[in-house]
Amino acid sequence: MSKHNYKKLLAQFLFVLLSFAFVFFLQYNPVAASSSYRVDDQAGLLGESQRSALAAELDRISERYGTDIVILTLGEEISILNPTDYADTYFENQDLGLGSSQSGMLFMISMAERDWAIATHGEAIDIFNDYAQEQLMDSILPALRDNNMYAAFTNLADFSEKTLDNAERGIFAEEKVSRPFTFYILPPVIALLLTALIMKGLKSPLTSVGFRSGASSYLLDNSMKIANSNDYFLSSSIARTAIPKSTETKSGGSSGRSTTHTSSSGRTFGGSSGKF
Fold first, then answer.
1. With the C-alpha atoms ordered 87, 91, 94, 96, is the resulting torsion angle positive or negative?
2. CA 136 – CA 19 distance, rounded (Å)
3. For the domain 34-175+256-275, what is the CATH code?
4. What pLDDT is stored for residue 254 in this prediction?
């Protein structure tokens, strides 16, 4: 083999080798394709760029607050009988959760019957209590029903971060009680009516008493004589009473209710489920 042919063959070999290396780099570069477990899109509802961006956001939130936030989507080919049980089992099998309590929240949707389920574990049970879950679903259900999954999951990430940040400051979701307008109007009206009736009852025995501008009409003639009268200022005193400072402290626990259940393996989970 001539020297020229040898160099040409070597150049072709190097070119092929570099081509394989470039393709390998594109496929396995962690920047191009995130390996995060926090977005398991089995149903293929997200584009690659959407999935990568969402996974990066969930990674940031989860690591910042020490609580796993994970999204799971199941395709129409997977039929499940009990979404809650499936979510709990997935959480356990994937060993989700961070910290000593394995704190985490899994949000799952199944396209077969358009089910959704939330599974919470560890500290996340109190952080994402019943009322927080209701608020979460209120914020993402419209997008889910419109099949705008990326918008729904982005809203979920934003809501999760706000909820975790509030929990750090001792603020937890509380039940919102809807009251009719009459609830706020009737008490003062009833109080005014009762006051009017009481005052009328107290006034009625005094109708025969006339108004007098001075006290002379109440004195008998020659019953009291004052020779001299003087006013003397003797002393003054001011009493001070210390107002005790409030000793109320904000509880570090949840002020809302967290409904829990036991999984098949005996672990405690919170959560809820429904359809979209």
1. positive
2. 47
3. 3.10.310.50
4. 42
